[in-house]
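Fig. S4 source data, part A: sequence.
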Amino acid sequence: MIFLDRISQDVWLDGETYEVLFTRDKPGSRVRWSMTESEYMHYVDTSSKAIGKWHVANDTITQVEDLSRYDDITFGKGKGNFT
């Protein structure tokens, strides 16, 4: 799959045909593809201050880490993949 987040609506494309698979709202403020689980993206939720895993096709989320004790969390602007 290919994720396009630079347009008004988030879009996922088929990686071979480039056809639109679906559109949906991502959880949290930022997402990054998992480097070890291709069907997942990692997300940062700045409102609940958590990091989680999102199964993109099934649209299910799992919180991985509660970071509510921190004032602010982010992947960082312009940074690469989440490892």
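Fig. S4 source data, part B ends here. The chain has one domain: 2-66.
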